[in-house]
Amino acid sequence: MSRRTDVDDTGWNSSRRSRGRPPARRRPKQPLGKRIAAWTSIGLVSILVVAVLAAYVKYRSFWDSIKRVDVTGLIGKQPPKYNNAVNILLIGSDTRTGQGGIGGNAPGCNCSDTLMLLHISPGHHDATVMSLPRDTMVPILACGASDGTPGQQAAPGQVERINAALAAGGPACTWKTVDEQTGIHIDHFVELNFSGFEKIVDDLGGVEVCLPEPVHDPMSNLNLSAGRHHIWGYQALAFWRTREDLGEGSDLQRIQRDQFLMSSLVQGMVHSGLLNSPTKILNVLRDATNAMTTDTGLDQNAMLQVGDSLRGLRSSNVTFVTAPNAPYPGDPTAELVWQQPQASELFTAIAHDTTLPKTSKGRSSKPATATPVVDASPSQVNVQVLNGSGQPGVAGQVDSELTSRGFHVLGSGDASNFNYTTSVIEYPSSSDTAAVNTLKAQLSNVELMPDSSLAPGTIDLILGSSFSSLNAPSSSGSGAAKTQTISQAAASDGAISANTRICHDSAAFAGPDGG
After folding, report:
1. How many whole angstroms separate alpha carbon 156 and alpha carbon 163?
2. What are the residue ranges of CATH 3.30.70.2390 in the chain?
3. Percent of the chain's residues with pLDDT above 90
4. Residue 413 to residue 199: CA distance in whole angstroms
């Protein structure tokens, strides 16, 4: 059973803006440009604001205009944090409240129109921006009331679109859901609304887009001929959100086009000289902070630390990728699920920060190919052993054997009943696939069963009456993990880097409405 949330994509009235004078190049008059230059490669206006704030902490009025949400006690138990990487959840809200007609007059659902995870690898000066499709179906979790939302009760066995979590329990509920589904420890969130996006793109001097075919969308009034165009905030927002009359009309292609737009925004900021102009940066700061929401933990010190970790970052070291997905069986034309094992491979690679996220510059139009299932090392598997048959001492014995093989055994005891015949591995979400695979290899006859009530990152092994012994240890060594790098896991989903050529985006327009 699923609870569906439909997201409106209706249009709004059009108005043309003349192209302004290109930003003048200036020599840095102070260390400001160098301090902020590290951020240019991200290409996300909300994150640019974080860096600008760090440089302009003396402007207290700007700092105080940011809305903050205290998520303490609302996130629950988070996945383990394996390293010093920083993970920031980026939320684009579809609220029309206080937007002055921007985004259309039709009421939004106060859902997340766009959802991305920014992963910063401070040791390597790299960043990965992973888009999470808004129509992905996820378990309905218990979320407390927050940020004016009513909260929601857990509904075991039921699912909802991931974008609905924002309306149900605010950013904290979205944070909790992404944490649980990906197994990636999130450190902070930044939320930006429609008006903030539009105004900031204007402050940045607009953005270049490239279309292989003309676009005439009556819903958004986006009318562009084929080729390159310099567009401003109003049209950029229309381009960002339009999907029905482009290509296949899917949100997945919209995400592809948006990733090219973000790459173009990066390149435009680098070449425009904007970062050497304190006046222009302050305009960005003024407009963004008025439309920005963060968690209370993202304070000035945290912002400075994040900015420092990105010092020296280049656009070639920024990767944009979409979480691997497949049609949801309940509604395959409109909803999605994580595609396995590819999604878990990418989530695990990001959580463990396994390498530099380097990818090819162009996005391949070929379908993704399956790659080998990723295993975790036994030390990364948190398992509780339970007796499901009533055989005396069996749980304690397996507890000792798994511990000797390097597994992190949380303890042993009795299951809720002794009626199990076949052994069962229960796991909280698809993000635990790697750990499940490693544990499954230790048994010859075991069933897998998801259980969202389990704490993220933990697994229950229930031993049935058919269990006799664990499999013999592998001759290659049970502690050897089959790990994938971020780039290996992302490559099969057509990742692009921020310095890609924006006119290589033809696959994002392919389909009946895009030629």
Report:
1. 18
2. 378-463
3. 25
4. 58
Structure tokens at 400: 């000792």
Determine the Cα–Cα distance for residues 37 and 127; give it in Å rounded to an integer: 14
Q: Where in the chain is the domain with CATH 3.40.630.190?
A: 33-354+488-508
What six digits make up the tokens of 321? 């990728």
Strands (DSSP E) found in 377-487: 382-387, 408-414, 423-427, 446-450, 458-463
Q: Report in angstroms the alpha-carbon separations of 310 from 21, 29, 35, 82, 260.
A: 30, 22, 10, 19, 21
Structural domain 378-463, CATH architecture: 2-Layer Sandwich (3.30)
Taking only the tens place, the pLDDT of each residue in 346-395 is 888 899 887 533 333 334 333 333 333 346 778 778 899 999 999 999 99
The answer to whether the CB of 410 falls within 8 A of the CB of 384 is yes
- Cβ-contact 411, 399 below 8 angstroms: yes
Residues 187 and 86 sit within 8 Å (Cβ to Cβ): yes
Pairing state of beta strands 215-217 and 207-211?
A: unpaired
Q: What is the dihedral of CA 38, 40, 44, 46, to 10 degrees?
A: 60
Q: 304: helix, coil or strand?
A: helix
Residues belonging to the chain? 515
Architecture of domain 33-354+488-508: 3-Layer(aba) Sandwich (3.40)
Structure confidence at residue 145 as a pLDDT band (50, 70, 90): very high
Q: What is the rounded CA–CA span in Å between residue 499 and residue 264?
A: 8
> Distance between terminal CA atoms of the chain?
37
Q: pTM for the complete prediction? A: 0.66
